[in-house]
Amino acid sequence: MGALEKAIDSAMQKTQDEFPIDVFPETISRLIKNAETTVLFNPSLFAGSILSTLATAIGANSSIDNGSFTVRPILWLAIVARSGAQKTAPLGKATEPIKSLDSKMHNEYLDELTAYNSSSDKKDLSKPKFKKFILNDFTIESMVEILSFNERGILITQDELMKWVNDFNKYRGKGGDQQTYLDLWNGNIFSIDRKGGGPIRLEKPSINILGGMQPELLRNFAANRTSDGFLHRFLFVIPENMGPRKYTGNPIDKNLFSDYSKIITNILDFEGQEMSVCTTIKDIYKSWQHKKAEEVHNDDIEFAIQAKMETYIWRFALILEMAHQASNAEFKPELSPETMKKAIRLVEYFFKQALKVHDYMASKDPIDHLSVSQREFYEKLPKKFKRKEGVEIGMSLGFARISADRFLRNHPSLFKQRTEDKNLAYGEYSKKYD
User: Fold this and answer.
1) pLDDT of 302-333, one tens digit each?
2) How many separate domains does the chain show?
3) Which of 217, 219, 230, 245 is nearest to 81 (CA)?
């Protein structure tokens, strides 16, 4: 095995269950770690939200030509965690620099609108437009109109992504909102004819999506969205081992957040560039892609996931390179080999997350739908046990008494009791799965 193959294997083997935050510039990695110890942000949730914010800041202004096709940093990202796991807060904090810019542009828009409305002669004036980045509640037509005067692009944010998909075709009857988004994911030329508003043509549409979801809603989210590749276009962040959140009373370090905001501002202020790819970068990608092609060839699900990851890896490379350059306030249209290796680590992480989603949806085993701590609790229980004994085992693992008791009472799919098995004594439980 040559040096290049060893480097690729090393990058692939570093894949982990949690987001590899060290792919970011050091100041962002430090911010993520600080937020974990102060305001209790899960690192993977915060990192995923930051990745999406960086992609939005870059938007259509920069691209990368890999020799075969050109890509821009369009990411569809879903944060998956149980209700109450604090998904909204890290998403909101990560997007704060762009929200601040939206607020500034809204104030400017109001001033311009006031001046326009008070003008007695509007013949040579154009009505002001509110140029914004973040969309929450909108129609396809209004989104396309906003894109027409914010060519850099937009970010659709939703606390609950199910609301977004449930609103598909809300204003168009049997219209094809889902197909529209599929077309827009590629960032290719898009045009729409509006009733009474005239046609709009977008040369380089850039639409990023970021939102939260609860694990039990994954099946609903995927319903009728697998065969057309809609589901495979999503990147999933599914944190492992989310322990109890214990209030610290400490804020995020202001200097670290200021440094992060400066990176976003530097990107937004930059006019953009098309990055070139040297032979070394192509060889790194080729070595990774050839290896993955052999691995996934005989598995339809892995094959479908990999097809989208081969586009996402270039989008990740562009985002990471721009982030590192922005941290030094020095831009140049070159992608470094180290960044490409980091992109491999990131794409391998998301590949593993995608497999988690498919395994979760395919599994009919109720144990697979337990949280990590609940699964550990279940595995520690003996085959047969009294309720008091089960509660004590749960408490030894950190469960509150009432939580351990409720787990035993509320999971009849996991346990037998006397009503189901007369060989059991009253108050005795039997595990249905070993």
Assistant:
1) 999 999 999 999 999 999 999 999 999 999 99
2) 2
3) 217
